[in-house]
Design goal:
Layout lengths: L1 E4 L5 H10 L2 E5 L5 E6 L12 E2 H8 L7 E4 L4 E5 L7
Parallel strand pairs: 2-5
Antiparallel strand pairs: 1-6, 2-3, 3-4, 5-6
């Protein structure tokens, strides 16, 4: 897992993280609630709902092979690559 300050990433590093992420959660203006950004919205990952930290934790611990990027309001990020092996 990678984590740190978004501002410490170069434009190229941030773009690479976003491109390789299956799910990107971006914190809303209300702390603790996140919007999801996916390449192709599905029933499993709808984009018209808000997610809590607990819900995101379920994705992080799920059996699905997902690369997940989380960006917070305070300029921090967490990236979890696919935990199950190859993409």
């Amino acid at each position: 897992m990678n984590q740190g300050d978004i501002e410490d990433l170069s434009i190229e590093e941030r773009k690479k993280l976003q491109e390789c992420s299956d799910l990107i959660f971006v914190e809303t203006v209300i702390d603790g609630f996140y919007e999801i950004k996916v390449k192709s919205p599905t029933e499993m990952f709808p984009t018209d709902v808000f997610y809590t930290k607990e819900a995101i934790g379920e994705f992080l611990m799920s059996k699905f092979k997902l690369h997940i990027l989380i960006e917070s309001n305070n300029g921090k990020f967490i990236y979890q690559p696919n935990r199950m092996g190859k993409e």
